[in-house]
Specification:
Blueprint (H helix, E strand, L loop, with lengths): L8 E5 L4 H12 L3 E6 L4 H13 L5 E4 L5 H11 L4 E4 L14 H29 L2 E6 L2 H5 L5 H21 L4 E8 L5 H4 L3 H9 L9 H12 L10 E4 L8
Parallel strand pairs: 1-2, 1-4, 2-3, 4-5, 5-6, 6-7
Helix pairs in contact: 1-9, 3-4, 4-6
């Protein structure tokens, strides 16, 4: 299936991270004008990523703002203007067993991982609905589906992402706006490479596909959901986890 997003404007939050950067690249290669969000504190690293995109022949704009702030999102989206595609990819972890988890660890994760989805979607959904076309793709996680030791905050936030997806999909289905979730499994990235080798080995043993995912695997799934041809898919969760967690 050839995906043509020419003329569409896409905003990807967390767009300079391992997964987000490939989502940006894939959308740009499909013809979209792409804006990558990053945290203001990460701007130097984001500019390095921008140079890597340029080396691929891709012109992707940077828009640093705090996705956890409602007004910051409003201001940034106002600067960008029309947004046809929103990919909510920003996310953090602050792992600890619940008996040792501090309120700040809980709040930080919920604000970045879940509040941000509301903050950005709230400011784009009306315009999408008025124009009769839009794509919102929210990045969840396999651990939002099955839970994970030491990640009550992260698992709760990522489960909440899909609850948000389903509710908003019902609200916008008649407006030409689709809202879907992609739930990655363990992806080859600096985060997984930082895990001790013995633990990483045990994780790998639990993946039937026999490998960690690649950021491109997620980017391909997201771009598929953004396609014109995917307009009858809404409220869905697309697991991309190599068979690590299988359910209806």
């Amino acid at each position: 299936m050839r995906i043509d997003l020419a003329g569409r404007v896409a905003l990807v939050t967390g767009g300079t991270g391992a997964i987000g950067s490939r989502i940006c690249a894939e959308l740009a290669q499909a013809g979209a004008r792409v804006v990558a969000n990053c945290a203001e504190s990460d701007l130097d690293a984001a500019r390095q990523q921008q140079r890597r995109w340029q080396a691929e022949g891709l012109e992707i704009a940077l828009e640093p703002f705090d996705v956890a702030g409602f007004e910051a999102c409003a201001a940034a989206i106002g600067r960008i203007g029309r947004i046809d595609i929103l990919v909510n990819c920003a996310g953090i972890t602050r792992d600890a067993p619940l008996r040792r988890m501090q309120p700040q660890q809980w709040q930080d994760v919920l604000r970045v991982n879940l509040d941000s989805v509301f903050n950005t979607s709230r400011h784009v959904v009306e315009g999408m609905s008025e124009r009769g076309w839009g794509r919102i793709v929210n990045i969840s996680s396999v651990n939002g589906q099955k839970g994970q030791f030491g990640q009550t905050n992260y698992s709760a936030s990522k489960a909440g992402v899909h609850g948000f997806t389903m509710a908003l999909a019902a609200e916008t289905a008649r407006k030409g706006v689709t809202v879907n979730t992609v739930s990655p499994g363990y992806i080859d990235s600096p985060m997984i490479r930082a895990v001790p080798e013995d633990i990483r080995g045990r994780i790998l043993e639990g993946i039937p596909a026999g490998r960690f995912g690649q950021p491109q695997d997620i980017a391909t799934a997201v771009t598929f959901l953004c396609a014109e041809q995917s307009g009858f898919i809404t409220g869905a969760n697309l697991p991309v986890n190599g068979g690590q967690f299988i359910s209806f």
